[in-house]
């Protein structure tokens, strides 16, 4: 599912206009992004947790030349699925 499809489904389920649904989805994405930029964690009970992890500087290799290169330290966003989401994706058979 792409973002446009998500917005269309959101609009359909909430009976919002496409414009209002687009604004709502974009606002949620903006809020999560802003919080992660500040280093905060965003948890949605049952769905999952968005967080930021730090990656240490390391050495790598240029695949074209084989030359050793330095890869700088960075931060990366991370998502950890919640129990309800995991259960929905992997239902237990009885």
From TrEMBL:
State a single Pfam family of this protein.
Bac_DNA_binding
Statement: the UniProt record of this protein carries the keyword Metal-binding: no
Biological-process GO terms, alphabetical: chromosome condensation
What GO MF terms are annotated? DNA binding; structural constituent of chromatin
Name the SUPFAM superfamilies for this protein. Answer: IHF-like DNA-binding proteins (SSF47729)
> What keywords would UniProt list here?
DNA condensation, DNA-binding
Matches recorded under InterPro entries? Hist_DNA-bd, Histone-like_DNA-bd_CS, IHF-like_DNA-bd_dom_sf
One GO cellular component term: cytosol
Q: Does the keyword Kinase apply?
A: no
- What family does this belong to? Belongs to the bacterial histone-like protein family.
The protein here is known as HU family DNA-binding protein
Q: Which organism is it from?
A: Massilia litorea
């Amino acid at each position: 599912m792409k973002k446009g499809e998500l917005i269309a489904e959101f609009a359909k389920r909430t009976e919002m206009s496409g414009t209002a649904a687009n604004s709502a989805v974009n606002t949620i994405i903006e809020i999560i992004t802003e919080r992660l930029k500040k280093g905060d964690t965003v948890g949605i009970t049952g769905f999952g947790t968005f967080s930021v992890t730090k990656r240490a500087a390391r050495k790598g290799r240029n695949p074209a030349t084989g030359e050793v290169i330095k890869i700088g330290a960075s931060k990366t966003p991370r998502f950890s699925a919640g129990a309800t989401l995991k259960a929905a994706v992997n239902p237990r058979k009885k």
